[in-house]
Protein 1
Amino acid sequence: AQSVTQPDIHITVSEGASLELRCNYSYGATPYLFWYVQSPGQGLQLLLKYFSGDTLVQGIKGFEAEFKRSQSSFNLRKPSVHWSDAAEYFCAVAPPGGSNYKLTFGKGTLLTVNP
Amino acid sequence: DAGVIQSPRHEVTEMGQEVTLRCKPISGHNSLFWYRQTMMRGLELLIYFNNNVPIDDSGMPEDRFSAKMPNASFSTLKIQPSEPRDSAVYFCASSLKASGRVDEQFFGPGTRLTVL
């Protein structure tokens, strides 16, 4: 069974600082990988996704993520955080092939941004 | 463009009552998902419909839960009878599933259910 670990429950950064959110997965093959963001009282919004090819993927809102097969990781980064980035971030994986709808989510990382 | 619409946004009910959650997917999407989010278990897929047909209901917790999709623009998730442990945020999501593509799921704002 696939699983996703987000080791950091809560991260606080200052506005303008860089950000890295960690995500590790467990799966037999390379799964499809996603990062979602959830603002308070809102649904989840897709930031970026990785299926194959270039291991550095660009997403919306200035976010990027790097797939590292050797570490089974898919960490999310942003060079300079804005106050509006405060939200909860979820990493998710899906199996390649016909069941690629079956997202398994991590428990999330809550990001607080200090002025 | 309208996103996924869910109603009600908040529901408070008493144990034993029937609860019905509603979802209108994005027009043109052919796949619909119901998720449940709790502090303990995180986000879990409950059921997946494709072209109005339930494809995977392995995440439905028990017989008290049922979901229907009578047409392409409407789905319901019903809990009967409800129990306090059903308290959670329920999300509906939709996507356009096409051959050779990976689903990108678009989520609604959720329904926060409290069962007293």
Protein 2
Amino acid sequence: DGGITQSPKYLFRKEGQNVTLSCEQNLNHDAMYWYRQDPGQGLRLIYYSQIVNDFQKGDIAEGYSVSREKKESFPLTVTSAQKNPTAFYLCASRAGGTDYGYTFGSGTRLTVV
Amino acid sequence: LAKTTQPISMDSYEGQEVNITCSHNNIATNDYITWYQQFPSQGPRFIIQGYKTKVTNEVASLFIPADRKSSTLSLPRVSLSDTAVYYCLVGFQKLVFGTGTRLLVSP
């Protein structure tokens, strides 16, 4: 079955360490997105990529970095510069063109101690 | 990007029809209107999408007036499992999520 996979589901890191969250999709979607969700809040856009080797900052990109070397993969690195990294991170993909429906992964809950 | 406004929360009972209205006064010509459902600790799930008039699928209907400045998600005969947060989004390539509407369905 086609889908979008995020791993791991839970992640614990010490303060000051960089951590990379994985996002892989086999839907052949062109566009991929990273969102952050804090308790009781909506989703906020971190980064997005419309095509391979290209990406744009979202609303809260500071302290995060991404790469898009392959169509299937869009990893997110949470750097030590991110002041409050503890959150629920969601990856999504979209086919592109006139298909505006997003497919979301199941999320990674990152806890920094 | 068009901003959306929807009620923070709604309560209903099993078997009732629930209508959640979203306003989007600054919607652009290219924008579609999309609704998502989210359960705790899960990614949002696509419910329905439309551009104008009425769209219906197996789980919901979406009503969009001619001026497209608002839309209404209609959930027929809700059950306890419909308790979730519902997001209304307007956009093209980049979707902006608000805080959504928390729907609580009681027995």
